[in-house]
Amino acid sequence: MCGACSIFHVPRGDEMISPSLCERLLVYLIRLAGGLMLVAVLALLMPRPWMAAVHSWLGLGQFPPAPIAEYLARLTSGMYTIVGGALVLASKDVRRYDRMISYLVIALAALSVAIFLLLLGKLPVFFILPDPVTAVGLAAVVLVLQRRMRK
């Protein structure tokens, strides 16, 4: 390509970001996502009266008195903590843990969408919509970065 023509050369989508930059972005993104998920450990350890107060503050009414409600809330927080920890650990070598990272973000997105659809109309949309939106967005960006990192 001549010098004058190169001024007008518009890179294709796959030429815009180098594989090494994609790898660094992927590391930062999954560390951020994993770190945010690790914050769920606070809810896991939260006293039951605090859970009830947050539940009420969100406009969801009285926190159910049955022990199963507390069990499920703590289990969900624990699972988010485990997934977050796995993502942070996997960020140490994103090439080695490529498939595990893909699995985690796809599974999280699928679970979030399924729960959203199951609970639509039963819980306020403001409460259930952010989860699938962020999970699907995270999965999409992670998968694109992984694909470009492999080139």
The percent of residues in helical segments reads over 70%
Q: What's the number of extended β-strand segments?
A: 0
Name the shape in a single word.
elongated
Number of domains: 1
Approximately how much beta-strand content do the residues carry?
under 5%
Q: Main sheet?
A: none
Give the uncertain stretches in residue-range form.
1-10
Radius of gyration: 20 Å
By secondary-structure content and strand pairing, the structural class works out as mainly alpha
The averaged pLDDT comes out at 91
Number of helices: 8
Description:
- This protein is an all-alpha fold and 151 residues long.
- The chain has one domain (18-149).
- Helices cover 74% and strands 0% of the residues.
- The radius of gyration is 20 Å and the shape is elongated.
- The model is unreliable at 1-10 (pLDDT under 50).
List the helices and strands and how they pair.
Layout (H helix, E strand, L loop, with lengths): L2 H5 L11 H20 L1 H6 L2 H10 L9 H24 L7 H22 L5 H4 L1 H20 L2
Helix pairs in contact: 2-5, 2-8, 6-8
Write a concise synopsis of the structure shown.
74% of the residues lie in helices and 0% in strands. With 151 residues, it is mainly α.
